[in-house]
Amino acid sequence: MVQPKRGRRLGGSGTHQKAIMKNLAISLFENGKIETTVAKAKFLRMFVDKLITFAKKGDLASRRQCLKLLGNYNTVQKLFNEIAPQTYTRSSGFTRIVRVKNRLGDGAEIVQIELLK
After folding, report:
1. Residue 101 neighbours by CB distance under 10 Å
2. Is 34 helix (H, G, I), strand (E, B) or coil?
3. Model confidence pLDDT, tens digit, residues 4-13
4. Is pLDDT above 70 for 116?
5. Where are the alpha helices (DSSP H) in 1-117?
């Protein structure tokens, strides 16, 4: 396993961490809310806030940046056409984390992260 130089990590290599964030963000944008662990939710909050801020700009460069980070054209379309217009009144804080339960297998704390409108 790669040893982190500074800051927190989810484990594995940098590309694995990016893949985890990309898949969680796509699921969040398509479903509106998902359940995951606390650590992943805190990382996802930063990633999603950056994407929604890009989408609020609405220009072509921002769309291409989001497409580069997400890699899913349909999700980027939904982000720019549906999610970003609902958040124009907010400057930050586009997500909410609510603690739900502990996982039965290993006792990890499970939270629900949802988009605010």
Report:
1. 11
2. strand
3. 677 777 878 8
4. yes
5. 14-31, 38-57, 60-70, 73-78, 84-86
Residues 74, 42: contact at Cβ < 8 Å?
no
Other C-beta atoms within 10 Å of 92: how many?
Answer: 8
Residues facing residue 49 across a β-bridge: none
* Cα–Cα distance list, 22 to 66, 68, 91, 102, 115 (Å): 11, 10, 23, 24, 16
Which one, of 102, 10, 92, 16, lies nearest residue 49 by Cα?
A: 92
Provide the token pair at 37.
């662990």
Domains assigned to the chain? 14-115 (3.90.1030.10)
pTM of the model: 0.89
Unique residue bearing structure tokens 């997400």:
70
Given a contact cutoff of 8 angstroms between Cβ atoms, the answer to whether 27 and 44 are in contact is: no
Residue type, 112: Q
What does the pLDDT look like over 40-73, one tens digit per residue? 999 999 999 999 999 999 999 999 999 999 999 9
Fill in the DSSP letter of residue 4.
P
